[in-house]
Amino acid sequence: MFQNWSIDLGDRLDRDRRDSIQLRIISAIIHDIERGALASGTYLPSSRDLARTLELNRKTVVLAYRDLIAQGWLTSHSTRGTSVASDLPDSGRTLPGAIAQPGDVSYGFAALPDRALALPECPGIRLDEGTPDGRLFRYNLLVRSYRSAAHRLARENGFRYRDPRGAEALRIAIADMLRSGRGMDIGKDNVCITRGSQNAIHLSCQLLLRPGDTVLVEELTYEPAVAAMRALGAEVLPVSLDDGGIDIDDVAAACRLRRVRAVFVTPHHQFPTTVVMRPERRLRLVELARLHGFAIIEDDYDHEFHFESQPHLPIASYAPAETIYVGSMSKLLLPTLRLGFAVAPRPVIDALAHHVSITDGMGNALEEEAVAHLIAKGDLQRHVRNTRQVYAERRTAFANNIDDLLGDRVEYRLPEGGLAFWLRFRSDIGVIERRVAGAGLRIASSESYRQRDSAPNGLRIGFASMDEEEQRTALHRLGAAL
Ligand SMILES: Cc1ncc(COP(=O)(O)O)c(C=O)c1O
Fold first, then answer.
1. Candidates 126, 217, 297, 301: which one to mutate for ligand 1, based on the most atoms within 8 Å of Cβ?
2. CATH assignment at residue 24
3. Do 419 and 344 belong to one domain?
């Protein structure tokens, strides 16, 4: 059977395209078979005729046909020519024409939440929620560490698939860091390297939560963590929060009513309010964890940046069996590195590693080795010492600038630690947020923190990534919006 078929290369003949013409012919023929324009058994024009039509060298068409024959799309009948393979099913489509456009989707998938988790890139000053100033990092140190790590991996045949828990050198370095600086009695086998702490939170949730399980969070909290829990089908129950941290009576009440699997907290610098969880509440939370068998997911995302005293020891340092401790290099070094870690008893780490294998196999071993090198050389520690000093000054400057430019239109408490302020406003937050956008400022929505309607309103604004002049420009615009 010979059908009146002509190949349509469309813009495939565009000579500026970088894929080969041979590949474009292959693609056009497969598309036509798939959409029913070329039925199985149909004879194609001879390579000579098709080459003439397309004004191409015949060899190009011969090679395209040869590939399609080798792949099973076409069959060669020696002297009788080349046809579409006879064992191909008839296309499900009614007929030619229906060429999918970019953006067409023919299957269902879970709808996105109304609000995106990340602020989109767009013009204006972007106020973050407490990120470091990447300009203070001497990137040459990283270049040097990458070079050294690459040499080492090459020498040791290390460019292979590796331990899903992460590079041993980095697990050792992090365990040392947490032992000496955060009072945690752990070794490398208690550490799993992750892609940022967000990944550690998600992996922990995968381990702990099944659809329908209950997890408790503070009524104001870190939305991406809640999103990870909800994505697993967990029921997220908000509990109250005040100046001393999570309301333990509320936690106890929830545990009496239902089986709670996990409690997510940011006890060192509560997100978003910055308050430090008081010792009595920490101890009572651990007591409840023991009594009811839930896990405490302790997100300690910016531990070293505490300004009023030594950083508080993590709950995990005195209750390791009840806790999955989550940390990050995003604030210590750079968020672009996407390096975080989970710390837990060995069986939990092994289970986390299993979930790493499922999710992305393993981390970026080259980067992990490079950061281990950075720590071994003392560069990370020096960088943290320097930036802590700079951020302490910026924290004071930010408070002074708020007093100066916003006056009594805003309420805040000087944060004991962390890289952000929690601002409460006297006027309607919805109106303020609309005006802020009009003033060319982009700020995370106050709604992103609130897990229930009765939760207080406020904005979390990072101070560390801006020098004093930048702070004044941003706060000036905020003042104009009030
Ligand atoms: C409370 C909290 N947890 C986790 C993260 C995630 O950080 P990363 O994934 O970059 O380590 C952030 C980032 O800002 C955060 O504020």
1. 301
2. 1.10.10.10
3. no
- Residue nearest atom 15 in ligand 1 by C-alpha distance: 301
Ligand 1, atom nearest to 130 Cα: 14
Same domain, 179 and 59: no
Q: Please count the structural domains in the chain.
A: 3
Whether ligand 1 lies within 6 angstroms of the CB of 60 is answered as no
Instruction: Quick: pLDDT tens for 102-142.
Output: 888 889 998 888 788 877 677 778 899 999 999 999 999 99
Cα–Cα dist 21/17, whole Å: 9
Q: How far apart are CA 462 and CA 395, in angstroms?
A: 9
| C-alpha of residue 140 to centroid of ligand 1, in Å | 25
Parent domain of 443 = 125-133+382-481
Beta bridge partners of 325: 298, 343
Does some domain include residue 92? no
Ligand 1 in contact with 222 (CB < 6 A)? yes
**Predicted confidence (pLDDT) per residue in 363-394, tens digit:** 999 999 999 999 999 999 999 999 999 999 99
Q: How far is the CA of 198 from the centre of ligand 1 (A)?
A: 6
Which atom of ligand 1 is closest in space to residue 195's alpha carbon?
A: 9
Q: Are residues 198 and 326 in the same domain?
A: yes
Question: In a 10 Å sphere around its CB, with 0-12 CB exposed, 13-18 middle and 19+ buried, how is residue 284 labelled?
Answer: middle
Question: Domain for residue 30, yes or no?
Answer: yes
Closest ligand 1 atom to the C-alpha of 271?
Answer: 1
- Other beta carbons within 10 Å of 24: 21
Cα 197 to ligand 1 centre (Å):
6
- What's the CATH code of the domain at 189? 3.40.640.10
Which of 475, 474, 481, 470 lies closest to 438, judged by CA? 481
Average pLDDT score over residue span 332-342: 97
